[in-house]
Design goal:
This protein is of the alpha+beta class and 147 residues long. It has 2 domains: 2-53, Ribosomal Protein L9, domain 1; 68-146, Ribosomal protein L9, C-terminal domain (Ribosomal Protein L9, domain 2). 33% of the residues lie in helices and 27% in strands. The strands form 2 sheets. Strands 4-7-6-5 form a 4-stranded mixed beta sheet. Strands 2-1-3 form a 3-stranded antiparallel beta sheet, with helices on both faces. InterPro entries: Ribosomal_bL9 (IPR000244), Ribosomal_bL9/RNase_H1_N (IPR009027), Ribosomal_bL9_bac/chp (IPR020594), Ribosomal_bL9_C (IPR020069), Ribosomal_bL9_C_sf (IPR036791), Ribosomal_bL9_N (IPR020070), Ribosomal_bL9_N_sf (IPR036935).
Length: 147
């Protein structure tokens, strides 16, 4: 089943992309949630017109994302967590905690755009990927320290 995405869907595609999905996933999740529409002739024409009109806006959004990535640079964040005697943390560090740490430094990044390269279960140094735009990705280092 071919659908046109109305919003970014993690692991599937970005807004206005035409993707091929299984019929059940499209009918039962993507379309009812308002994340996609069926890729028929009329919808394809409408999306092409929207893309044409939004081309100059897309450049501005990409440039803003690139500026944010450049301003974040090689920053290293400190994430406090409760750590046991063996160095394991109680629970785990979440994208929400990383988003709050970035916000404290003056960078407004949505937690949904952050993903970890590996599970954060012990104290130490890690990296996370920030997906600012479909063409602009940035990595940030963070240290998990004991409270």
């Amino acid at each position: 089943m071919e659908v046109i995405l109305k919003d970014d869907v993690k692991g599937l595609g970005y807004k206005n992309d035409t993707v091929d999905v299984k019929p059940g996933y499209g009918r039962n999740y993507l379309i009812p949630q308002g994340l996609a529409v069926i890729a028929d002739k009329a919808n394809k024409k409408m999306v092409a017109e929207n893309i044409r009109q939004a081309a100059h806006k897309a450049d501005k959004i990409k440039n803003d994302a690139q500026e944010l990535a450049n301003s974040i640079g090689d920053i290293t964040l400190e994430i406090p967590a409760k750590v046991g005697e063996t160095g394991k943390i109680f629970g785990s560090v979440t994208t929400n905690q990383l988003s709050e740490a970035l916000k404290a430094k003056g960078f407004d990044v949505d937690r949904k755009r952050i993903s970890f390269d590996q599970d954060v279960k012990t104290a130490g140094e890690y990296t996370a990927s920030i997906n600012l735009h479909k063409e602009v990705k940035h990595t940030v280092k963070f240290n998990v320290v004991s409270e």
